[in-house]
From TrEMBL:
<dbReference type="InterPro" id="IPR011008">
    <property type="entry name" value="Dimeric_a/b-barrel"/>
</dbReference>
<protein>
    <recommendedName>
        <fullName>ABM domain-containing protein</fullName>
    </recommendedName>
</protein>
Amino acid sequence: MSFVQVIEFETTHEQDVQRAMDDWRDATENERSVTHTTLTRDHSRPNHYVAIVEFPSYEEAMRNSDMPETSALATRMRDLCDGPLRFVDLDVIRDEDL
């Protein structure tokens, strides 16, 4: 069963967040278990963002979370965000292309 993590945060430093995500992507190229990411910005609240991160399984998400590069990204994100990040862990029970 695939697994999705949703991360919500507020920031006025979008470009720095994007750079941090790019740095993480480059540093984990052959190690990460993330299969897909989507970064969104709330249309009516332009400083509110939602990142959607997909994994093959919960276990792979936990392996990815334990990587030093992921810990470094989390630290950078906490520094760039206005307030705490909110994490929602979701088991995918239905997924279809329409």
